Amino acid sequence: MVDEVETNPTDVTRSRKRIRIGDLLVENRVISEGQLQAALAEQKRSGHKLGHTLIELGFIDEQRLLDFLSQQLQIPYIDLTSYPLQPEVVKSIQETLARRYRVIVLENRDKDVLVGMADPTDLFAYDELGHVLKKRVRQAVVRESDLLEALDRMYRRSEELTSLAGELHEDLTQGDFDLGQLMQTVEAGDAPVIRLLQTLFEDALQAKASDIHIEPDEEVLRIRQRIDGVLHEQVMNERRIAPALVQRLKLLASLDISEKRLPQDGRFQIKVKRHSIDVRLSTMPVQHGEAVVMRLLDQSSGILSLDDLGFEQGMLQRLRLLIKKPHGMVLVTGPTGSGKTTTLYSALNELNTAEKKIITVEDPVEYRLPRVNQVQVHEQIGLNFARVLRTALRQDPDILLVGEMRDLETAQIGLRAAITGHFVLSTVHTNSAIGTVSRLLDMGAPGYLMASSLLAIVAQRLVRRVCSHCAVPYEPDQIEQAWLEGVQHDYDLGGLRIGRGCNRCSNTGYRGRVGVYELLELNGEMASALRRDDHESFTRIALASKQFEPLWQSVLQFASQGVTTLSEAMRISGDVDGGRRVKRSMDDRVVSV
Predict the structure, then answer these.
(1) What pTM, to 2 d.p., does this model score?
(2) Cβ neighbours for 84, distance < 8 A, ≥ 6 positions apart
(3) Where do the domains of the chain lie, and which CATH numbers do they carry?
């Protein structure tokens, strides 16, 4: 963080006497002489600043060091997580300058500016800021990690996107822009369309977006990013740039650029700021051109373990026992974007040992796993799920992962594999664990096959987390109170929280997402009901199971702990309302919600 300190850094006309920060810390008995010498030796080896080294070695807490600097320099310490940052003020200096010197502009007045600095003793940064801003610089000390997060939020690429879009639109309008040549020249990195796409992906990575939507409208082009499950929109007036963007993306994904009447799917990989991003691209003809949706998968982040997914401890132990069985089938269900693939890969990663032969059949292959034989489905050449599965069974597998049970043939092959000595993992698009059985029966899968092979069904959703930096207690409103009375909850709701909105959560009150789950293990009674094709009895027995906790109860428990909000709990309960009503009717307490 810092190496040395000046006695009066806020007075630009006064001479600056430098004092080594280490000596100052020893003099004030914050650290010992021995700790200083050890830190100096480590600093010489690592090349880091002394303050950073002291913190890394555990000789001083970061907050204590910041408070110490604030007191010695007689400048304020500012907590950026709660400071009301203004984008136009922060952008008084260029992003490159802010990141190089670890500074952020907090106030910009007529005669002076207030600047937050991770290292307020950096004289080069101080002089450069005075030169650029041409005003007296007042300093404040801020936490470096908070500063970097604030820079990521404030220097979003929206203005750069608009500028590049305008540049591309002007080139297209003037007729000087050779689109055909650009599309064939990957090296044309300075072309506006290339830089626009690069900026678009950098902005999405910075915002931790899971999807990018490019949607041409009659007069404008809409670019939307899905962040924590919610779409955020940017509207561009340069409608004519849409075909150039779509054509370049098609080339990257090796799609047919001449075909604009039919949907196409593809994928490509890009590197963005040292992150390897796998992009799944889907195009669809719409009224005003072609719409594009890109799913972004950060391969650099690795695969999460089951412990990181948010399972309740008891449920996690039961799931671990289930996936280690020698044969049978475990299904993961939920709507698109609910995290099913992440759960499957986490389970597969735990099972991936040298003693096990694992084959996956996917469309597309989303994550690469060593030692696992992963097969990409290719419908155009007849390589569908059923065909690959039949071949995979002749490859002597121990474990099979089927990306999705889409049709009867795939379901039957998977179910039969599960009763012939293989362990099968797969997904089904349904709203609940109990609804999965109905879906398979509707496909035509025989009940006796499910009874003999199906071990368990996991249903899941992703709910938004309350931002921990701006969370405050709150009381349910009238609508939420009515809903709580309807669901007959048994939780202590004293821990309810809601986010007020702050810099860290972009004033949404939410930051990140967490999974909520229900785990239905099939027992003998449920299997008997399936053999009789008696779905009503199966539902009744499943809901009466002591180990089965529906999704809406799981998310309500999270709400009671302040992890998420009641509004998120109500949203999830809407997906599984039917199952809740059945359970209440069994208890003779039907309530209309």
Answers:
(1) 0.68
(2) 503
(3) 21-145 (3.30.300.160), 156-179+190-298 (3.30.450.90), 306-462+514-549 (3.40.50.300)
